[in-house]
Amino acid sequence: MKPNYGFAKRQRELAKKQKKEEKKLRKQAEEPTQGEAAETPEAAQVKAAEPGTPQSI
Hints:
Elements: H1 5-34, H2 41-49
């Protein structure tokens, strides 16, 4: 019997997509527990450098 490579590839793609979605959900679940207080100084600098943000003089 001839192997169905297209089916195997689709199954791998679906598994990869599901794993990626689970990882995304895990990260979203962790995010609220850390809160704004855990923000690093580097992240604060990046926020300040974004266009459209008011900068204090």
